[in-house]
Amino acid sequence: MSIKDDTFFAMPINIPSAKEQDRIALFLNAIEQKIDKQRSLVDALKKYKRGVTRRLFAQEKGSFETNLQIVSLGDLFPFIRNGFVGTVTPFFTDREHGVRYLQGTNIHAGKITDDTVYYVTKDFNAKHSKNILKRDDILVVQSGHVGECAVVGKEYEGANCHALIIMSNGGNCFSDYVAQYINSEAGNKQIASITTGNTIRHILASAIADMVIPIPSLEEQKRVAYLLSIYDDRIAKEEQLLSELEAMRKGLLQQLFI
User: Fold this and answer.
1) Architecture of domain 54-236
2) Environment class of residue 39 by beta-carbon count within 10 Å: exposed (0-12), middle (13-18) or buried (19+)?
3) The whole model's pTM is what?
């Protein structure tokens, strides 16, 4: 698409008085400064959390108070498998008659989101019972933004899923701790080393099982996971405020320049 110079310069625009233009510019500049400040805060919080996780997950015994073991995910999660892969659209239904059906798009920033949620029939869910999620399962994105993971909470227990790796806890570790490790810089490096594909990146459940992770005592795992969750909650709160400011700016621009 293109536009001729003459057409572009002939476009009419509404011009208020010079005084009004100054007021509008000052107001918009103030919003821009607020947005820049908020964006810098979000970036600083993320950077600080990366530094904390880098020190915690350095796989050095000095990083933890208790004895540290290096254990494979396959040993910690004895039931690692793929979610359903195939055509599922004929089995979609509404919320009232169905069961939640999670996909890779529902895993973001270490959490399960309800941005776009589908529902499948109860018959489909029963037929694919091995993919029914339990509390403390870990879901790992298998294709696209591979490696991002989240822990299944109470609200998603009983749901089913599509093309996700499901890891069921064997009881010897704290799922939130493991998810924090997988989503950390150290975990990302391991994920990158076992990812295949050039156009569409992909990871196998068997490769996930071979990943290794530093494991301190169960109590220390809980303390670490709790500490990192505090950073996650603060980051999510500040990101939400940033989104609201950007939406406000967009709305004001639309109103001012109609």
Assistant:
1) Alpha-Beta Complex (3.90)
2) middle
3) 0.86
